[in-house]
Amino acid sequence: MTNRRKIAEKCRRRSSRLPEALACADEAIWLDRKAAAGYRERGWIHLDRDDPVRAMDDLDQALRLDEDDALAYRLRGEAKQARNDPRAAADFDAALQRAASDARAWMGRGVATGSSADLTQALAREPTLATAYLERGTLRLVLMPELALDDLAEAVRLRPSLRASALARIRRHATTLDATQTGRLALGAISRFGSPSAATIWRELADDPEKRSELLRLLEWR
Fold first, then answer.
1. How far apart are CA 96 and CA 107, in angstroms?
2. Segment 97-114, tens digit of pLDDT
3. 194-218 pLDDT, tens per residue?
4. Where are the alpha helices (DSSP H) in 175-208?
5. Among candidate residues 25, 24, 30, 31, the one with its CA nearest the CA of residue 2
6. Could you state, in order of their start, the residue ranges of all structural domains in the chain?
7. Which of 31, 153, 203, 206 could be cross-linked to 192 through a Cys-Cys bond (beta carbons 3.0 to 4.6 Å apart)?
8. Which long-range CB contacts under 8 A does 114-118 form with residues at least 24 apart?
9. Per-residue CA distances from 135 to 11, 73, 121, 166 (Å)
């Protein structure tokens, strides 16, 4: 039976070919319906396929079979988070009680509870976790804008595909600021996200004539 259960573990290695990985997990479950690993791995694959509803069904079953499966708790937390379910935090708590070294469980709980400290714990355990920098930077924008921009820039350095998301978060925050604050935020973004023209970066941050004028004034004094 142990060898059959190992089939489920191997399915994740095929995650770059999701249909094949899903078929592999289906086979693992068919071979041993009492093994939590098969349901956990199939739930993980459903998450990768952006199907949190099916993921939760499988992860619920995995946890019925093995209530101490830390990874299953974390994955179910991620599935709940994808559905904006406030119960996600409880699953991340359960995961961390069983595996305190799981950086992604720390990150998940940090996002669920708005805890910068939890995101810092995630980065202490996995320093290249780009999404943790993105989320911590977003939380820091209100009280620590310079540190926030550093985090967002690091997220983009680690994963360039996050640039649009980072700038969108800066832009959303800019709408809550006055002209001077927004101009300074824009300058910080310009210095950290390369050197596009002021007009280009400004179009990404705000669409307010007063704020554009303030940015130009600040650029003259930089």
1. 11
2. 999 999 999 999 999 999
3. 655 555 666 655 566 666 666 666 5
4. 179-192, 198-205
5. 31
6. 128-222
7. 153
8. 114/139, 116/140
9. 30, 21, 13, 9
